Amino acid sequence: MHISQLREGGYMDYLRIKWMAFPGGCASDYQQDDLSRLGVTSVLGVFYIIYAGIAFSVIVLAIEWIVACAVDVRGQDTIPHYPKTWTEALHFRRRRLWQELVNDFMQLRDGSFQPPLTTTTAQSDTLTTKIEKE
């Protein structure tokens, strides 16, 4: 409503002339068609930021897995089925991740996928024993 009043009063035309008109010889150099097209080079920085974010997240994931494997090896000497070396812990985590992905895919394919609200310790222990039996 206020914008229509400003338009009727001529203030919008004043602002358009003030900010959009190019005084001097530069106005002939600009063409409206050139301003409306964006090429790949115009948005290349966005792709660089996305690629940097992906690379950073992969590095953080690798660090998280390394720390988790070190904690698994160091803190669980009394439990017999836990891995004893760092590479065993990494292999165990990779196998467990693969098994969860396969189970989720099979449930999606069958149409019976129900995402868990929370994961209990009993569910985690059941999955661990299934992986160890294989």
Please characterize this protein's 3D structure:
72% of the residues lie in helices and 0% in strands. The chain has 7 helices and no strands. It has helices at 2-9, 11-20, 26-29, 32-36, 44-75, 86-110, 121-133. The model has no long low-confidence stretch (mean pLDDT 75).
Attribute tags:
elongated; mainly alpha
Low-confidence stretches: none
Mean of the pLDDT scores? 75
**Head-to-tail CA distance between termini:** 71 Å
What percent of residues are in strands?
under 5%
Q: How many strand units? A: 0
Tell me the series of helices and strands, N- to C-terminal.
Answer: HHHHHHH
Shape: elongated
The helical percent reads: over 70%
Enumerate how many helices there are, as a single number: 7
Major sheet: none
Our Rg estimate from Cα atoms comes to 30 Å
Helix-strand category: mainly alpha
In short:
The chain has 134 residues and is mostly helical. Helices cover 72% and strands 0% of the residues. The protein contains 7 helices and no strands.
